[in-house]
Every structure is written in C-alpha cells, then in structure tokens.
Amino acid sequence: GAVVSQHPSWVICKSGTSVKIECRSLDFQATTMFWYRQFPKQSLMLMATSNEGSKATYEQGVEKDKFLINHASLTLSTLTVTSAHPEDSSFYICSARPIMEQYFGPGTRLTVT
Amino acid sequence: GQQLNQSPQSMFIQEGEDVSMNCTSSSIFNTWLWYKQDPGEGPVLLIALYKAGELTSNGRLTAQFGITRKDSFLNISASIPSDVGIYFCAGLYSGGGADGLTFGKGTHLIIQP
To answer: How would residue B67 be classed by pLDDT, with cut points 50, 70 and 90?
Structure first.
C-alpha cells in the first residue's frame, strides 16, 4: 500500500505558541490530503481537506485562522496550530488517497501545557 | 450529513473465537473501507470494497459490501492476541469532489487469553 508519513510524531508546546505538523506522501502524488483530529477513545473527525495549489476546505466548526493548512507541493501538506491552548491537545492524523483507498499517516500527538 | 452506525461498540472474546462487526448508514456509499488502529498510531487499511455485493478476504479477515450500499460487515476468524485494537468502518461517496471519509465510531476488540 501507499505510505504517508507525519512529522513530528509527538510534540509538547507551551500555551500561546504555534506548532507545525508535516504530512508527506512518500511514494505517490496527492493533490488532496485530509487532516483529522482524534480524541481519546473516539473516532476520527475530519477537520479540513487540503488542496494542492489552492485554499483548504474546512469542516463546519473548525477555525480556519487557528488551523492553518498549506499544501505547497504534491507530496507535502502542513497543518499549523496557531496560538495553541490546552484544549487543542489531541491526536492529529493526516491521510491521502492515491486512487480510491485512503491511507493514513502515523499521527502526531500534540500536548499543550 | 452522513452518519455511520457501527456495532458492537466493544467485544470481549476468547482467543480462537470468530468476530463479527458491522456498519450501517442512512445513505449510500460508493466505497467501504475497514481500518484497524492500534493505540498511538494511525489507522491501517485492512480491506477496501468497491462494488455492492462484493465479498473480499484478506487472510483471516472477510468483509462484504452490502447490496443496498448502505451497510458492510467485517468478520475475523480464529482471533489471535494481535487482533486486539479498534476497528473502524469508513464510507466514501465520491460525488465528483475530493471527499473525505465518514467514519463509524469504532469497535474495540479485546481478546481474553
């Protein structure tokens, strides 16, 4: 199957700072990538769809000014959590779809203190 | 929006037993995907289904795409300890756009030795 990587795998930051998470498709090109958020013992919640060369599409209730998405190339999308607060602590997972199947990265655990 | 009902929410079984879980939807999907997620990791694709009525196997796993396109089931035969984890169904309706997946809430599989 296709491989999607994420970096970092975990990050701890202080409240008020910004954190950038990278998502890369390693063996295929992805014009579209997806960013999900997952709280403990819950399912994945789609936050936004990242489109190469254009603006991301955000799901209802997701603040676009807080979760900045940049899809600068066909293999890289970044999610920046700006002015992070403790309630932003979560597991963030990206995914990409080479054809029909959707493959997920290993996730990034964000802890805001 | 589309919603998926996944059941059971959790299963406590003995090693060697067969497992069955299913998902139902209020609307149709073009693709059904089954994922397994281990703690602290991203979901891993197990089986992808593309046609109504399709029955697909992957080792001890078997999944079917319901005829109505509104349901799918996953069976695991002769469970082993490494089958422990959370299983998610996901539906995809590609209505011409790059849609994300709609996830079920997951089935937590626990195997007692």
So the answer is: very high
Tokens of A98: 């080479």
Give the sign of the dihedral formed by CA A71, CA B3, CA B11, CA B48: negative
Cβ of A44 within 8 Å of Cβ of B88? The answer is yes
Nearest CA in chain A to B10: A41
Whether A14 and A112 have beta carbons less than 8 Å apart is answered as yes
- For residues B58-83, average pLDDT: 96
Cβ of A31 within 8 Å of Cβ of B98? The answer is yes
Among the partner-chain residues A6, A43, A97, the one whose CB lies closest to the CB of B106 is A43
Q: Which of B81, B28, B21, B17 is nearest to B46 (CA)?
A: B21
Give, in degrees to the nearest 5, the angle at Cα B71 between B65 and B73.
65
Q: Which residues of chain A have pLDDT under 70?
A: none
CB B37 within 8 A of CB B86: yes
Instruction: Give B-chain residues touching A69 at CB under 8 angstroms.
Output: none
- Contact yes or no for B96/B49 (Cβ under 8 A): no
